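Need the bound structure for flavin-adenine dinucleotide, inputs here:
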Amino acid sequence: MAGLDDFADIIKRNEPLAPYLYLRVGGPAEMLVQPRSREELSRFVRYCFAERIPLRVLGSGCNLLVRDEGVSGAVLRLSEPAFTTIRVEGNRVQAGTGVAVSNLIAQAAQHGLAGFETLVGIPGSVGGALRCNAGDRYGDIGQFVRQVEVMDSSGNTQIRERDELRFGEHASNLDDPVLLTAWFQLEADSPDAIVKRMRKAWIARKASQPLSFQAAARIFKDPRGLRAAALIEQTGLARTRVGGAEVSDRDANYFIVHPGASTRDVLRLIDLVRSRVQERFNVTLEQEITVW
Ligand SMILES: Cc1cc2nc3c(=O)[nH]c(=O)nc-3n(C[C@H](O)[C@H](O)[C@H](O)COP(=O)(O)OP(=O)(O)OC[C@H]3O[C@@H](n4cnc5c(N)ncnc54)[C@H](O)[C@@H]3O)c2cc1C
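Answer from helper R.:
Posting the output first, comments after.
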C-alpha cells in the first residue's frame, strides 16, 4: 500500500487556497495535490479513500467559498496536461475536466462547432461546469454532454452515458469523486456566425455582472419561477455591506469581496440576505456557491 511519502512530489502542504479562488479569500488546504498522470491520480484517490482522508476537487474556484480556517485532507487540482487536453472529431469535442470553459468555447468555435455560445463569460473549468451545470436561461452545458468519464473511490474509471446523466438548475447528478473527461455533441455552423453570437452573449453577460475588476461571485440559485437578484433588490439590500463583503448594485445576486475581506464576512452577509428575503417574501434562498 502506498504512503503519503510516495506522493511527496505532487503535494503542497498547508497551501493557501485564496490565490486559486475567484473571490481570493479563505484559508489553506492541508494538502494541495496536483497529479501528473491519470495513473498517479488513481493511486492517490485509492489511497485517500482507504485511509479515510477527506478528498475534494478544486476546479477554477469560481463557485467556491473556503472557510477562513481552511480545509483538512486533500484538495486535488487537475491542472497538469494529462487533464487539460481538447480533441475535436467531427461534431464531437472531448475535453479534460481541467480545461477552462473559455478555451473549450474558443476551440469549438474555431472548428465551426456551435452550441456553447450561451456559456460565453461564465468563468470556470469543464469539471466545475459539469458538476454545477453551468448556464443560464438560454442554455446550459448539460444539454451538449454525451458521456462523462469519472473516477470512483477505488481509483477506477467508468463512463457515465447520456441516459444516466441528469442536469437541472445549477446542479447535476455527477457526484462521483472525480470527473475526468467529457464528450460533447455540437452542431456545425460557420465560424463567423458563431463568433457573432459569442460577441452578443458576451456583451449581455458583462452588462449584468459586477465590474470585471471586482472579485464577485453568484451566491444563490434562482427559486422556481423567480430571480434571486430581484428578491434581494426588492428587499432593499443592494449595496448592503458586512465587513468587506457587499451586495452588488448591478446584480444583487452577486456579492463583491473587497480587499481585506474574510470568508466570515461573506458567510454573515449570506445569512443576513437569506433571512431578510425569507421574512419579506417567505422564500428560502438556496445557496449556489459551495462552501468548504
Ligand atoms: C463572475 C461570475 C459569474 C458567474 N456566472 C455564472 C452563470 O452565468 N451561470 C452559471 O451557471 N454559473 C455562473 N458562475 C458560477 C461558476 O462560474 C460556475 O458554477 C462554474 O461552472 C464553476 O466552475 P469551477 O471550475 O470554478 O468550479 P469550482 O468552483 O472550482 O468547483 C465547483 C464544484 O465543482 C466541483 N468540481 C470541480 N471540478 C471537478 C472535477 N474535475 N471533478 C469533481 N468535482 C469537481 C468542486 O469540487 C465543487 O464542488 C459565475 C461565477 C462568477 C465568479
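Comments: The chain is about 25% helix and 25% strand. The mean pLDDT is 94.
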